[in-house]
Structures are given as C-alpha cells and as structure tokens.
TrEMBL record:
The lineage of its organism: Bacteria, Pseudomonadati, Pseudomonadota, Alphaproteobacteria, Rhodospirillales. Keywords: Copper, Metal-binding, Oxidoreductase. It comes from Skermanella cutis. InterPro entries: Cu-oxidase-like_N, Cu-oxidase_2nd, Cu-oxidase_C, Cu-oxidase_fam, Cu-R_CopA, Cu_oxidase_CS, Cu_oxidase_Cu_BS, Cupredoxin. PROSITE patterns: MULTICOPPER_OXIDASE1, MULTICOPPER_OXIDASE2, TAT. The keyword Oxidoreductase applies. Gene3D superfamilies: Cupredoxins - blue copper proteins. This is Copper resistance system multicopper oxidase. The keyword Endoplasmic reticulum does not apply. Pfam families: Cu-oxidase, Cu-oxidase_2, Cu-oxidase_3. Residues 46-158, 239-328, 476-594 form the Plastocyanin-like domain. Coiled coil: none annotated.
C-alpha cells in the first residue's frame, strides 16, 4: 500500500470496500482516517475548530473532524446510515449534493419536512444509493459551508466501471475566508463593490470624459456605471484563500503517480463563491464524467468550473516530473494549486497568471428575449440596438487633457461601431493594453467566454458533453418553465424571476412530466443553478445523449435551456449555488406533485 498515504489507488479502494463486505460503508480521507463500520453506519460530528492554511490559522467548522470532511466511499446499491451529531451552538444540516434520495433525507432545512439539527441533537440519515459517481456533501444552513463543512462522496458502480484507472484521487476545491461569513454578507449588502478591487478603468474614462465636457457627444448610457453593476464583478467576494483538499497553494497537496499510470482525478468545486478556470499545464485531461454522470471521453486542456459542479478526468503522465494542477478564480484574485508528481515534496512551475476577463456589452446583448425591464438601474432603451454611431461624432481631437494612462485595459470591443480612423491626434501608442476588439488577445481577455485560453488549446464547453448512455426519456417537453436569473446588485439582492425566496410562487410540475427549463440570465454574473433531487439534461445539441447535470452554469446575459423528467416527488430546493446569492434570496421551491394531488 505504498500509495495509500496520500491517495487511494483504485485497487486499494476496492480492497477496502471488499474487506467491509456487505457492510461496505467506508470512509477514507487520505492520511487521516479510515473507518469501515460493520453495522452499515457512520458517525459524523459537526463542530467548531481551527484551520491552518499556509501557516495562517482561522476559525472553521468541521464535519467528522477534518476540513474537508472525510471522503465517503460507498458502493451503488448499498443502503447507508449516517448519524450526524451537532456540536455547534446553532442549527446545522448536511445536504448530499447530487444524490437521488427521498426528500426528507436531502437535508435542506425548510424543504420536504426536514428541520435543522439542533445543538446537541443527532439526526439519522438513511438512504439507498441509486447511482454511482463523484458527488459531495455540505451544510445547507447559514454560511456553514463557507466555514469548512464540505466533503467528497465517491460511489463505486455496482457493475463494471467504464472508466479504467490505476489511481483514484479526490481533488476538492474550496475557498476559505478568515473572516466571519456573516460579516462578508453584511458588507456585501452595504456596498456591492466592497470586495471589488479591480475597478474598471473604462468607467473612469467616461467619468473623466463627462467631467471634461465631452459627455454631450458620448452616449453615456453605455457606461457601466449607469448599470449600477460593476463590469469587473465576475465574482463579488475576494480575499479568499483557495484550497485543494484543504491545503493552500504553499501547503501544496500532492497526488503521487508512477509514470505511465492512468490517474483519475475527481475534481469537485466545493467553493462558496468561486468559479475557477482549471488546467494542468503539460498534461491534457480527458473528461470522463460530469456531475457524477459518465460522458463520452473528451480531451481538453482546461475547463471553467462552476460552484457545485464536478468533473472526473483521466490524466496519463508518462514523464517522471512534477505537474501543477492550477485553478485560477475567474476574478483572478488568486489560485488553488496542487502537484501531481512521482513523489511527495516536489513542485512544478507555477504557470503564468492570466488576465481577468472583462465583460462587454456583447455579453449582455446575447440574450434573446431577455427581459431588460428587470435590470435595475439600467437604461434599457439603449441596450438592444445600442447606438454606437452616436460615438462617431465624438471629436477625439479635442481631448488634450485626456489621461490615456487611465485607459489601460479599456475594452474597445464594446465600442465596435467607433470609427478609430476618425481620431486624428489620438496617440494610439500611448494606450498600453488597449484591445481593439480582438477577443482573446494576450493583454486582455474579453467577454465571459474568454478564459484567456491560448491559441490551439482546447477549453471544455457544455456542447462537448455527451452522455455515455442513451437517455431513457425521449419525450418532447410538454411545457416550458422560464426562470429568470435576476438581481439588484446595488442592494445585494439576488432573485429568481425578480422575487426573493418564498416571496414568489414556487414552481410546480406533476410527477412524470417532461418539462423544459429556460434559464434567462439578466445579470452580469454567471450563476451556477442547482436543482436538488433530480438531474436535468442540458440542451446542448446532443439529441438523445444530452449530459445529465445537477448544476448548470448560466453565463452572464445568456440563455441556457435544459430538460427534466420530474420523476422524484417532493419539494426540492432550486437555487444559485453561489452561497451569498442563495442567502440573499436566489432560491425557489421546485415542487413535483404526486399525480393524485391534482385530481
Ligand atoms: Cu448566483
């Protein structure tokens, strides 16, 4: 078992599962704990603790004594029993993210009759595992997830695993703030820009231009400031430490391999608020599973990783050298890092950091049928047919006092109609970093879609995901449910269809219905939309093999459609998985009513 200290080879995992026999409930966290209970049960205590990341210690909450919580290794078909004891002085809960189960076992307070587990109480979860794959579990109470309450779930298939691997590692990404999460939310509500240090210089430019009397010739409704949203708010909380399996970049979690082995990485985004761009320079990743569901293998160099999503990838390092697993948060305030090497204690190069993507008006103009009326503070009349010609009359020759230095990173792609040829006297040479609209330029990434992927490199797109097996329900959806992702960033209110949680009507479908859900993102942020209890299938052109997912990352200003067979009765949480968005109201009830109820 030379590999067991840090990771668990597939063979070892199977051996352990075998040793447990019918009981079969195994929890393993590399290097920390292995328990195999003979009585098919497992005890997990929730308690306050301290966590030390890269030498810095702060407050946290653990499940089962560690952060992340112990990896639960189970087998499809087993019935598992988990006793969760709350040693906090507040209510808690554990939600089994992505698992198909009875509503009350889903662990979301206020849904399906589940009530918070009170201080000192023990709650017994019991459910049969009806699926295989990579999932995770986390608190669904207050902001406890942000404080460390998350762990991985690995369910081995009952039959043969179509994915072959010599090594099997969980790579759980998370974000940790040394600050009290309740404080974070309070500050966000006071001022949405509190954590946004990357103020965009285009705003300054327009402001200055107005101050200098040029405003009359500029359609100032173009300025982002008018939208009461900050164009750089790809993420709205920063100051995070980004972790891999609980370790900061300096502590450097390491996965060990022998050259030539197939290494399976079960990558989970267990962050509260952080969307990442993930890559392993020099090591292509073959995506074999998304959100726990097998897909036709697709080879990529990188992928954008929404909160709550999971991807299993296979890597096959043949050289005896360290590779760096690198996950940059999309606001580029930091990164999570780990190492894949033939031994502990070595490290690979830290790749060059990429520029932050700047959202453009093009991002906002993408959404057909977008309800512009719901975009608070924005002058919608100027949006759909944005009149760039209004800028052509701008007399650039009269801009002697214009501070070109302030134009670094200015996004000209939003000004495509602007005739640069009419700008005599404008010293283009003094505008470093200026991007004349070439998306993907090295200097400045433009638009949500641009992760700064270098030419020739392949970034995963949802369109690439194709389910390994054919869908069971091929009916056309009988009706469509529109879910607008809405918000008022100036007051840090995030909503669905313009209404805060439990202010609007829940979504109701009948058991057995086949429906389409149409997500219309009217905001400037991406929202990873998560449905409990069921998988949705993304309408990505894969006809009878649409990928099944439990989290769908809906880009800013865009529309994403999914289909769903409502085959799990209950009252399921349906929410944005960005923790503070959910906490501020971006959640609803998705009710699957038994047929009898409608008679
Ligand atoms: Cu959100």
């Amino acid at each position: 078992m030379h590999t067991a200290r840090r990771g668990l080879s597939r063979r070892d995992a199977l051996k352990l599962a075998g040793a447990a026999g019918l009981a079969g409930i195994i929890t393993v966290y590399p290097g920390r704990r292995v328990f195999a209970a003979a009585d098919q049960s497992l005890n997990l205590a929730v308690e306050r603790t301290r966590i030390t990341i890269d030498g810095e210690t702060s407050s946290a909450i653990s499940i089962g004594g560690s952060i992340p919580a112990p990896t639960l290794r189970w087998r499809e078909g087993q019935e598992v029993v988990i006793y969760v004891t709350n040693r906090l002085d507040e209510g808690t809960s554990i939600h089994w993210h992505g698992l198909l189960l009875q509503g009350v076992m889903d662990g979301a307070p206020g849904f399906n009759g589940f009530v918070p587990i009170g201080p000192g109480e023990t709650y017994t979860y019991r459910f049969k595992l009806r699926q295989a794959g990579t999932y995770w579990y986390h608190s669904h109470s207050a902001s406890q997830e942000q404080e460390g309450m998350y762990g991985a779930i690995v369910i081995e298939p009952a039959g043969r695993d179509p994915v072959r691997a010599d090594r099997d590692y969980v790579v759980l990404l998370s974000d940790h703030t040394p600050e009290d999460p309740e404080n974070v939310l309070r500050k966000l509500k006071v001022s949405e820009g509190y954590y946004n240090n990357n103020k965009r210089t285009l705003i300054d430019f327009f402001r200055d231009a107005r101050r200098d009397g040029l405003g009359a010739t500029i359609n100032d409704r173009l300025a982002w400031g008018e939208m009461r949203m900050d164009a750089t708010d790809l993420a709205d909380v920063t100051g995070y430490q980004f972790l891999v399996n609980g370790k900061g970049p300096r502590d450097n979690w390491t996965a060990v391999f022998n050259p030539g082995e197939r290494v399976r990485l079960r990558i989970i985004n267990g962050s509260a608020m952080s969307i990442f761009d993930v890559r392993i320079p020099g090591l292509p990743m073959t995506v074999v599973s998304a959100d726990g569901q097998n897909v036709v293998p697709v080879k990529v160099d990188e992928f954008r990783f929404g909160v709550g999503e999971t991807y299993d990838v296979i890597v096959m390092p043949t050289e005896d050298k360290p590779f760096t697993f690198f996950a940059e948060s999309i606001d580029r305030t930091g990164f999570a890092r780990a190492t894949i090497a033939t031994r502990e204690g070595v490290e690979g190069d830290i790749p060059e950091r990429r520029p932050r993507a700047i959202l453009t008006m093009a991002d906002m103009a993408m959404a057909p049928g977008m309800d512009h009326g719901s975009m608070a503070g924005m002058d919608h009349s100027s949006m759909p047919g944005m009149d760039h010609s209004a800028m052509q009359g701008m007399n650039h020759g009269n801009m002697p006092g214009m501070d070109h230095g302030a134009m670094q990173g200015m996004d000209h792609s939003a000004m495509q109609g602007m005739d640069h040829g009419n700008m005599p006297g404008m010293d283009q040479g003094s505008m470093p970093g200026m991007n004349q609209g070439k998306a993907g330029s090295k200097d400045q990434a433009v638009g949500w879609g641009d992760a700064g992927t270098p030419p020739g490199a392949k970034a995963l797109s949802y369109a690439d995901l194709k389910a390994l097996s054919k869908a069971k329900d091929l009916r056309e959806p009988s009706h469509e449910i529109e879910v607008q992702l809405t918000g008022m960033m100036s007051r840090y209110i995030w909503t669905l269809n313009g209404e805060k949680f439990d202010e609007g009507a829940p979504i109701r479908v009948a058991y057995g219905d086949r429906v389409r859900i149409r997500f219309v993102n009217t905001t400037m942020m991406a929202h990873p939309m998560h449905l409990h209890g069921m998988f949705v299938e993304i309408e990505n052109g894969q006809t009878d093999r649409m990928p099944k997912k439990h989290v769908v990352l809906v880009p800013p200003g865009q529309v994403t459609t999914v289909q769903l067979t409502a085959d799990e009765p209950g009252e399921w949480p349906f929410h944005c998985h960005l923790l503070y968005h959910m906490a501020s109201g971006m959640m609803t009830r998705f009710i699957v009513e038994p047929r009898t109820a409608s008679l």
